[in-house]
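Issue 218. Parser rejects a valid record. Input:
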Amino acid sequence: MAERVIPEPQRRRRRPTKQGTVLSEQVIVDTALRLVGLHGAQALTVRRLGAALGADPSAVYRYFHSTDDLLLAIADELIGQAQHGWQPTGDWRADLRDIGLRIHAAYQAHPQAAMLAAHRTSGRDNETRAVETILGVLRSAGFPDLEAVRAYHALVDQGLAFAALDAAVLALPAPALAADQDVWRARYARLDPADHPNIAATATLLAADMRLSGYPFALDLLLDAIAARLPDRGRPPA
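Output the parser choked on:
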């Protein structure tokens, strides 16, 4: 989609589409998420969106300047879904763990979109609210501002990296996914213990654990490291 800015007063369409839907940013984002989920990144075109919406493709320009603008809105929507219903408990570690797991789950629910959006910074409302919330949890826990920023950076990058990695796995065709998972049983579990004693000793555990996301355990490890840097623990930040 090429850049084509529509003046703000002309951006809203009030007449229903052929399908009887009044267009809005949310309707377009929801439709884009559905199309990307069904058909992958190639579905993110104004032609396909227009067809799915029952509207002239140019109507999309009333709400988004470009497909990249729409992609940023999709990224923000995933962050918003992760925050839906979240309530702080006052336990900073439990709150951050819950936020991380919610973000990961939201991206796993839309793996095709996650691969497109996990690395983007939208600057939109949901993302801004998430940044404010996470920094607020850290600062309220007693972390100095620099430590809070560093911890925020590590938490978000870790969560989004795992979200993108696990989304790529989920987006694999079913036969490829099954074949990858079976390698741990069909290949690693049969290696000669004389040559690979460590793999042989843990083969059953590997076959079971490698089918799961490593994110929850990695998140706990990171939270342990962050907790160790709290000033009141007598270990000043490095």
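Fixed in the parser; the record now loads. The chain has two domains: 8-65, 88-233.
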